[in-house]
Task: inverse folding
């Protein structure tokens, strides 16, 4: 896996930062080797508990794509149609 700069908010707690970074790492994994839908779903749910708003989510997705070239929305879109035992690869 590459080392990317992750979009974070200075007002988040350490646990919230960990949850957001874990989601973006799962997106990376979807691109690199594939990630289980169950794992990505869990990471996305925790991400959404930190970033509940769509506008902020889109901003963070855009920042991450700018830093990494990876499209988080593509992983989330595939997740919506996946079963728990599926592997998501982009």
Result:
């Amino acid at each position: 896996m590459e080392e990317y700069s992750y979009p974070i908010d200075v007002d988040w707690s350490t646990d919230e930062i960990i949850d957001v970074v874990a989601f973006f790492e799962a997106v990376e994994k979807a691109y690199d080797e594939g990630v289980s839908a169950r794992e990505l779903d869990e990471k996305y749910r925790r991400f959404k508990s930190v970033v509940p708003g769509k506008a902020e989510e889109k901003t963070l997705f855009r920042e991450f794509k700018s830093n990494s070239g990876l499209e988080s929305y593509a992983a989330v879109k595939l997740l919506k149609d996946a079963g728990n035992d599926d592997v998501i690869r982009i």
About this structure: The chain has four helices and two strands. The longest helix spans residues 14-32.
